[in-house]
Each structure stands twice: as structure tokens, then as C-alpha cells.
Amino acid sequence: QLQFVESGGGLVQPGGSLRLSCAASGFTLDYYNVGWFRQAPGKEREGVSRISRSGGSTNYADSVKGRFTISRDNAKNTVYLQMNSLKPEDTGVYFCAASTWYSMESQYINYWGQGTQVTVSS
């Protein structure tokens, strides 16, 4: 069974940190580029960060640069998103996605995770 499962979300105070994980099962993650997306209530889904197959290339949305770090451990078939200095506007459901295209355009996404809720609030 092919699965792409996020974990690590939760409630955190502004300025706090969370580490999201995205674990793949049933397929080999190192064949894919991986992206993190988020969707806030009433807003469209937006790209947060992406990482190439080898981990040698990464990109971040301007809103998270300097605060979030994406990484991957292909041996563990897992991608991570370390989120520091969290702000209320970071609240949303975070999804990971795998694609053979680094651009992570939606029509080229091969796998989506089910999402994990991140809430930043005092």
C-alpha cells in the first residue's frame, strides 16, 4: 500500500518550534522531489518549501525564509520540515507531496499526504 504520512503538527505559541515529518511507505522516496504545502482556513493552498531528490537543492517561500528548514533522509524514506520562530500566520494544514518534477506543479504531483494541522496561537 502506497502511503505518504505527515506527523509532528500541533499547537504551539508564537515564537515556538515544530518539526514536521513526512514518511513514505510502499514507494522509494529518493526517486522523488518533495515539497511542503500549507492551507490556511479560507485561503488557497500555497507552496512552503521543496527539496530535490538528492537534497542538494532547496527552495523556500519568502514568508518562511530564515525560519523553516527542509531536509530529507532517504535511508529513512522521510522528509522533514523544521519550523522555528513560528507566527500565527503560519497556522494551517501542512501537506507533503512527492513529484518527479522539481517545480512541484500540482498536475505533476505523484503523491499527496493527508495533512497535519499546525496552530500557532497564544
Helix and strand string, N-terminal first? EEEEEEEEEEE
% residues in beta strands: over 45%
* Tally of helical segments: 0
Shape: globular
Summarize the structure.
This protein has strands spanning 3-7, 10-12, 18-25, 33-39, 46-51, 58-60, 68-73, 78-83, 92-99, 109-112, 116-120. It has 122 residues and is mainly β.
Summarize the topology:
Layout: E1 3-7, E2 10-12, E3 18-25, E4 33-39, E5 46-51, E6 58-60, E7 68-73, E8 78-83, E9 92-99, E10 109-112, E11 116-120
Parallel strand pairs: 2-11
Antiparallel strand pairs: 1-3, 3-8, 4-5, 4-9, 5-6, 7-8, 9-10, 9-11
Walk me through this protein's architecture.
The chain has 122 residues and is an all-beta fold. It is built from no helices and eleven strands. The strands form two sheets. Strands 2, 4, 5, 6, 9, 10 and 11 form a seven-stranded mixed β-sheet that branches. Strands 1-3-8-7 form a four-stranded antiparallel β-sheet, with no helix packed on it. The chain starts with a strand and ends with a strand.
Descriptive labels:
single chain; 122 residues; mainly beta; 7-stranded mixed beta sheet; 4-stranded antiparallel beta sheet; globular
